UniProtKB/TrEMBL annotation:
Top-rank lineage group of the source organism: Bacteria
GO cellular component: plasma membrane
Its membrane topology: Multi-pass membrane protein
Primary localization class, coarse: membrane
UniProt keyword Transmembrane present: yes
InterPro entries membership: ABC/ECF_trnsptr_transmembrane (IPR003339), ECF_transporter_component (IPR051611)
Segments traversing the membrane: 58-79, 100-119, 230-254
Protein name, as recorded: ABC transporter
Localization (cell): Membrane
Annotated organism of origin: Mycolicibacterium poriferae
Keyword Nucleus among record annotations: no
Length: 257
């Protein structure tokens, strides 16, 4: 189902959003300071506004990411390596100045890394991404199309699980032992998935989906100045985050910890 977001920024190649999110993530995982994360987060806001992502989408997905970031921060707050003044101690829990600073840094870092990854892909479909990977990045068509087919089959697993449950109950299989029923049904689902995958691979091969060395594509995937500008701005975010953290003296390369 196509959302309204897809109409607000048509034509953006998914490869550009993938590379942009990757550049920002790589830059931010190199350090654990809060300055670089806050800088990146501040520079990402104009990007989201420029892409005209709906406020409702930003609020919903942002709330999920915020909860995940808060849980990560809480773990580091309670179980981070103690340093400085210890404010509270209980068994393995140590809340100190160091753990508080680390929790804040991790909270901002998770937000700065996850928000672009979530919001930039709000309107990307697996088919569009596969077209971009095959045509723009020149990844092997056999791998790309196979991964796309497998991804589209994932949605059928839930339906298969439900139907297998109905069939097993109708036959009275493992009706009194829930654990045995779950393991037996899971094994049946695995066998069913392998059989479907084998049939799908044979059908795709027969229709030329794995043509070598070249193949044709039904939908052309273009890469223009907008995609280049998006990647360039992502690079600016990454470089600015590192530069500001180094200038502030908070940069801590993870390899040197």
């Amino acid at each position: 189902m196509t959302s309204l977001d897809a109409r607000t920024r048509p034509g953006l190649n998914p490869v550009a959003t993938l590379l942009t999110a990757a550049v920002i993530a790589v830059a931010l995982v190199l350090s654990v300071d809060w300055v670089s994360a806050l800088t990146a987060l501040a520079l990402e806001i104009p990007l989201f506004l420029a892409l005209r992502i709906r406020l409702r989408t930003v609020a919903f997905r942002g709330a999920v990411v915020t909860v995940a970031a808060a849980l990560t921060a809480l773990t580091n707050l309670l179980y981070g390596e103690p340093s400085g003044t210890v404010h509270w101690h209980f068994l393995l829990i140590n809340v100190s100045d160091g753990s508080i600073e680390l929790a804040g840094a991790m909270f901002l870092r998770v937000l700065a890394i996850a928000l672009p990854s979530v919001l930039l892909f709000v309107d990307v479909t697996p088919t569009e991404l596969a077209d971009g990977l095959g045509q723009v990045l020149k990844l092997p068509a056999r791998f790309v199309i196979g991964a796309l087919a497998g991804l589209r089959m994932v949605g059928l697993l839930r339906q298969d699980w439900q139907y297998l449950g109905y069939a097993r109950r109708a036959r009275g299989v493992a009706d009194t032992n829930r654990i045995r029923r779950v393991f037996g049904q899971a094994f049946a689902l695995l066998v069913f998935a392998l059989r479907r995958g084998s049939k799908l691979a044979t059908a795709m091969e027969a229709r030329g989906f794995g043509a070598h060395p070249t193949r044709t594509w039904a939908r052309p995937s273009s890469f223009g100045w907008r995609e280049a500008a998006l990647i360039a701005y992502g690079t600016v975010i990454a470089a600015a985050a590192i530069a500001v953290a180094v200038a502030a003296g908070t940069w801590q390369f993870i390899g040197g910890r």
